[in-house]
Design a protein that fits this description.
The complex is a heterodimer of chains A (about 300) and B (about 280). With about 300 residues, chain A is mainly alpha-helical. Chain A has eleven helices and two strands. Chain A has a two-stranded antiparallel sheet. In chain A, a hairpin with a 4-residue loop joins strand 1 and strand 2. In chain A, helix 1 crosses helix 11, helix 4 runs antiparallel to helix 6 and helix 6 packs across helix 8. Chain B has about 280 residues and is an all-alpha fold. Chain B has twelve helices and no strands. The longest helix of chain B has about 35 residues. The termini of chain B are far apart. Classes of the chains: A mainly alpha (about 300), B mainly alpha (about 280).
Chain lengths: ~300, ~280
């Protein structure tokens, strides 16, 4: 009787183990499934345009000629511009929170920043559309460029705001991990606060800060709603940062439900596939940097 | 004499650079607080009882509301939780209880990271291909699947981290009493880490509740009240996007109102989860 019960429990143990292993494997299958689905769904476009898809800039749903270059350029341009704008502030913020501000105040500010990072991107888009766009238009009139208000520059600006908390909080975390001994050694040698930051803290935290920046880049590359709402949605090659444009994500958001031809839909999915590959690479780079840092 | 001047110069440099850093650090707070301020200013003026209880009205007609979008958000997110959470917890249990140092577990961890990094719009495409295309029409269910895909990595990783923190003594005590391992996990390990797992779920919900891109071509939106998950359904983020990009001033105002409702939901989820997280940290 008891033996039977024990053997039954042993069987349940095995079942439970297999069940949990199975769900773990399911996570891998989901990722593989996402990739395979994207390849299958974009196949008509891959077959029709081949590698030409990557460097031609005609996007014409009427003649059914599709090339993704304008969107690749749009995505890379807005993301890099956003990084350039956000990184100095993020770094300064991280140093301020990690080193300069009193811990109590730093804690409160960090909390607020984390909450701000949780604002949905569609709300950033709404604010961008009704407050940022008129402001940018005002400046564009002053400096004598076409006063669209919308466009690449506005999209980069809102992206910069959105990725700032990410880059900052990662950098702050690494800066606060710098061992006290090192800092005190620097002070003991007579270094000023800035000299300690410049020659001890920043070199020590370098790879972590880099990881934060790459992580923020990954966010910027895939960001959809806020960008879609302020970039102007023009599917042609942008010629200046004031131009109306489209990113890879925004063109999908705009045209996916309107695409009636299979090739058009497939071309949009292929852009999604490219976006997937790019973000996977960026995330793996972050992971490698983090693992290396841990080894150190 | 010379060293004295040198030191003064260094002190000066220190002061100047530290002030620049402080200014740069505090400057981004201005636009971020402007967003919150304007959101409350514009949003509060469009809130009324009708706004919560009525269905959307055609442009120009006064008194429309977003009742269907609020209900829709709850249904879509609720379904996503039902789909995503059990899977994620089981996978988290595997990573913490069975796969601490094995190759397979490492591959699963990397996969979760990759899944977390997939842009939300791409998740939308995948849910479209998996559910909308075979069924032939948009549905709330496809939106829930998309959101579940987004919450799975978050819950998996937090579950693993939390369960790893459960001391081995508890497991050993339970096993010594003759409790089989699977019951030990479900009755001892999981309940001990329950607050942490809940925190992870709340963070994941806060993250998906405001997602718009994955819903654009899955749940799609609906002007009417829909309760059937097989039908297209409205959600708060969809209302905000559709109304904000419409040409009607009336709808813009409602977009602000809907944003305020959404942000209050998301912020309170975030705050509750932080408080819970702090409680765990305090217990340690």
């Amino acid at each position: 009787m008891v033996e039977k019960k024990i053997s039954r429990q042993a069987k349940y143990d095995v079942i439970f183990r297999h069940l949990s292993t199975g769900t773990g494997i399911l996570i891998i299958l989901l990722v593989v499934g996402v990739f395979i689905t994207l390849v299958i769904e974009s196949w008509p476009s891959i077959k029709a345009f081949g590698l030409r898809f990557l460097w031609t800039s005609t996007w014409d749903p009427i003649t059914l000629e599709f090339g993704a270059l304008p969107f690749l350029v749009g995505t890379i341009l807005t993301s890099l511009l956003a990084l350039v704008m956000a990184v100095p502030f993020a770094l300064a913020g991280a140093i301020f929170l990690g080193e300069l501000a009193p811990p109590k105040i730093a804690q409160v500010i960090s909390f607020v920043i984390e909450l701000l990072a949780g604002i949905p991107s569609v709300i950033y888009g709404l604010w961008g559309l009704f407050y940022l766009v008129p402001t940018v238009r005002f400046f564009q009139l002053k400096i004598g460029v076409p006063p669209y208000g919308l466009g690449l520059f506005t999209a980069s600006l809102i992206l910069a705001l959105m990725i700032l908390p990410y880059a900052m909080s990662v950098a702050r975390d690494v800066i606060s991990l710098v061992p006290r001994d090192l800092k005190e050694a620097a002070y003991g040698l007579g270094a000023t606060r800035w000299e300690t930051i410049r020659h001890v803290i920043l070199p020590y935290a370098r790879s972590g800060i880099l990881a934060g920046i790459v992580l923020a880049l990954g966010r910027a590359l895939g960001e959809t709603m806020a960008v879609t709402m302020v970039i102007g949605n023009r599917s042609a090659m942008p010629h200046s940062i004031w131009d109306l444009a489209n990113t890879m994500a925004s063109v999908i958001a705009n045209e996916f439900t309107e695409a009636t031809e299979d090739v058009h839909l497939a071309a949009l999915v292929e852009i999604g596939l490219l976006l997937f590959i790019i973000t996977v690479i960026v995330n793996l780079i972050t992971r490698i940097i983090i693992v290396r840092t841990k080894v150190q | 004499m010379n060293t004295y001047a040198n030191e003064a110069r260094r002190r000066m440099k220190n002061k100047v650079i530290l002030s620049i850093i402080t200014v740069l650090a505090l400057l981004p707070a201005v636009p971020l607080f402007l967003i919150l301020f304007q959101l409350f200013k514009e949003g509060l003026s469009s809130l009324s009882l009708d706004f919560f209880l009525h269905l959307p009205a055609p442009p120009g007609e006064p008194g429309g509301g977003i009742a269907n979008a609020i209900v829709g958000t709850f249904i879509i997110v609720g379904l996503a939780v039902l789909i995503g959470v059990p899977l994620s917890i089981m996978a988290g249990i595997y990573l913490s209880e069975y796969g601490r140092d094995c190759k397979l577990a490492e591959v699963i961890r990397v996969s979760a990271d990759v899944l977390q990094g997939v842009p939300s719009i791409v998740i939308g495409i995948v849910a479209y291909a998996w559910i909308v295309k075979p069924l032939g029409h948009f549905s709330a269910l496809s939106g829930s699947v998309a959101l579940a895909l987004m919450m799975i990595p978050v819950v998996v990783r937090t579950t693993e981290e939390v369960l790893r923190l459960v001391p081995n003594i508890l497991r050993e005590a339970s096993l010594a009493l003759g409790v089989p391992y699977w019951r030990t996990v479900l009755k001892v390990v999981l309940p001990t880490g329950l607050v942490g797992v809940t925190t992870g779920i709340l963070i994941a919900i806060a993250r998906i509740a405001g997602e718009t891109a994955p819903l654009l071509f899955t749940a799609f939106g609906n002007q009417f009240m829909a309760l059937n998950p097989m039908e297209p359904m409205n959600a708060l983020p969809l209302v905000i996007f559709n109304y904000a990009t419409s040409p009607y001033a009336d709808w813009w105002r409602q977009a602000w109102g809907a944003s305020l409702v959404l942000i209050i939901m998301v912020l309170s989820l975030n705050i509750v989860s932080r408080i819970l997280a702090r409680r765990i940290a305090g217990e340690k």
